[in-house]
Amino acid sequence: xxxxxxxxxLKKEDDRILLLVGQVGYExxxxxxxxxxxxxxxxxxxxxxxxxxxxxxxxxxxxxxGFNLEAEKEFFLHFISxxxxxxxxxxKAMEIPVKEIARAIEARDAAKLKQLKGIxxxxxxxxxxxxxxxxxxxxxxxxxxxxxxxPIEDFMQQVMDVLVQQLGHKLLDAxxxxxxxxxxxxxxxxxxALFDEIYKGxxx
Length: 204
Prior knowledge:
Layout: E1 4-12, E2 16-21, E3 24-29, H1 32-38, E4 46-54, E5 63-67, H2 70-79, H3 87-93, H4 98-106, H5 110-113, H6 121-131, H7 154-166, H8 171-184, H9 191-203
Parallel strand pairs: 3-5
Antiparallel strand pairs: 1-2, 1-4, 2-3, 4-5
């Protein structure tokens, strides 16, 4: 199973790239939101992507789908768990940042979800019904440089790890989010509760 690829960019198309890894060229589909981050990449530049490998009896031709962050891939797995949303439909629908889709789900904003390509009113309601309460942390995804996290208390450390290493926050920003959340509610004692409080604070 292919989970991550890093190599040289050989070709860019509207919805996919060709990546040379060793002596093998991999054709990788990428959502529009990921392709936007690759616009500045030139042929020959290094590109690294987390990969979702799709192959089923109904779709025997393997398909590789690429993401910049592991958290984007994790959200994608939640997204395709919704009835009537397969991997190829999900790729086309992800035209805006994952954080915006996650926030629309948590806010029960069906109108926002209906703006996604291929998502109608009925499917938007299915997305909310299936994923509400499950994608809060993905609403905190940020583009940013990955840093090493300095250890703090256990459950706070877990949240810091996710904010920085998976969701793309800079170290100082992640520490600020955690500190402010704990100041608002010092009774927090689990990563899940801390993520919820950080999300609430960001939405205020």
